[in-house]
Write a structure and sequence with these properties.
By secondary structure, this protein is of the alpha/beta class. The chain has a single domain, classed as Rossmann fold, CATH 3.40.50. It has nine helices and eight strands. The termini are far apart.
């Protein structure tokens, strides 16, 4: 039969979900983020074998196993380093990176800044719940300084890390915030981020109702941003510095060319390369 006459099956979100059952706590926002990711891939009709999902360590970093895409579960804080190497080596792949605020902003903080700076064409989705959920409730880089808990009585007193400010200052080409309680809106934002060239960063407010039950109130406090995304980093910086932490939407969509700017052809032979390393 002529291939042109063969109908093409339309993929649905279910086609991107593996047979493994997520083991997150009931009520965890990561369930809906996983749903949003699969919906976004279905929106774009990306074949699962052309998508790679890379993660580090933490509750949200389990996501690669819950998809039918290629997956890589790396070590703590190194997801962006692994994903950068993968995307540069295999630029035809759509590369997503998933993680949490502990994995991404603490041990992985240095990789985060330099991934923004390099501007490799991939999408980083961080599920931020302001706590280390997998290791039983310690304060994370984004935890409020006055959050009182058994492990930090009276709070840490340390200023919270501001991911959107860091991403913008370091050079991310797409910066946005979403809320796990809005899976359709989050899915649309992820799809937009994937399509945007360069390094795209989405902070997803993903409640940890086990260790931060007060985050259930996020659903009544989050609100859409009142302004459209800008391609002016200075304007975006002024907006984000006045941000209350509950604005949902795209803050910045830049036009910086992704790395690498162009492929350089090598004309050296293997023998010539070996000569350079000869003792």
């Amino acid at each position: 039969m002529n291939d042109l006459a063969t109908p093409v099956a339309v993929m649905t979100a279910a086609d991107y979900k593996s047979g493994y059952k997520p083991i997150w706590c009931p009520g965890c926002g990561d369930f809906t983020v996983l749903s949003a990711i699969t919906k976004a891939l279905a929106m774009l009709q990306l074949p699962p074998h052309e998508v790679a999902v890379v993660s580090g360590i933490g509750c949200s970093s389990r996501i690669p196993a819950y998809t039918t895409c290629y997956g890589f579960h790396g070590v703590h804080g190194r997801a962006l380093a692994a994903a950068t190497g993968l995307k540069v080596a295999r630029p035809e792949l759509t590369v997503l990176v998933t993680g949490g605020d502990g994995d991404g902003y603490s041990i992985g903080g240095n990789h985060f800044m330099h991934a923004c700076r390099r501007n490799v064409d991939m999408t980083y989705i961080v599920m931020d719940n302001h706590v280390y959920g997998m290791t039983k409730g310690q304060a994370s880089p984004t935890t409020e300084p006055d959050w009182d808990n058994k492990l930090s009585p009276g709070g840490t007193g340390i200023r919270s890390f501001h991911p959107l400010v860091i991403a913008l200052a370091a050079g991310a080409n797409f910066v946005a915030r979403a809320f796990a309680g809005d899976p359709n809106g989050t899915a649309a934002m992820i799809a937009r981020a994937i399509q945007h060239p360069g390094f795209s960063f989405i902070e997803v407010m993903s409640p940890c109702v086990t260790f931060r039950p007060e985050q259930r109130e996020w659903k009544t406090h989050v609100h859409p941003s009142t302004v459209e995304a800008t391609d002016d980093p200075a304007r975006a910086a002024r907006r984000v510095m006045r941000d209350d932490g509950l604005n949902i939407g795209v803050l910045y969509a830049g036009s910086r060319a992704p790395f690498p700017l162009a492929r350089r052809e090598t004309h050296a032979t293997m023998a010539q390369l070996e000569e350079d390393f000869a003792l």
